[in-house]
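Subject: sequence -> structure tokens, single chain

Hey, anyone have a minute? Need the predicted structure for the following. Not urgent.
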Amino acid sequence: MSIARLIDHTLLKPEAQPAQVEQLCAEAVEQDFASVCANSCYVPLCRRRVEGSSVKVCTVIGFPLGAMLREAKAAEAAAAVNLGADELDMVMNIGWLKAGADEMVVSDIHRVVDAAQQRPVKVIIEACLLTVEEKERATRLVVDAGAAFVKTSTGFSTGGARVEDVMLLARVAAGRIGVKASGGIRDYSTALKMIEAGATRIGTSSGVKIVNEERNQGLKESRSQG
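Reply:
Had a minute. Here:
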């Protein structure tokens, strides 16, 4: 299977314009990526542009800080679903996690899971801000709350995906949920390392570059074998 089917083709910059989101969708359809991931105001546009393809529409909830009211996150999730979102990537309330308010963290996630109406919810834990213990606990809480994935990073904080974090999340998740590596993945070599470490989805704005590098690698290998 091509790495393309593991990629969420992503554009979340605040200055992203409709034409750029349309290009994102066109690339996703052409490359057969798993999804396009854009801010929630672009869900209707993405829905129209990927219609008839296998590409899912993914959007972000409570992004990028995660410190919104639980009710606000749930409302954003419900609105996105009503407009055609297939998958939701929400940001965990990092402050609550670090304060040990685990029940509030689970409640926050669970409200979005409920609003998602059985659509996959990926929970961003912003691993660069957490200790090892907090990453482990965050992953367990994501499982407890009924989400489908734990995700490393927003890409808007102090660091992105790291192989060692993906390995840790995959170990704690133990196959119960998926692991999404996101943030700073800009080439095929890095994406492959994340997958080998246990990532089951890759979030990147460099999806086209990555699949082209994969194809070139395949050509080199076939030539060397020939």
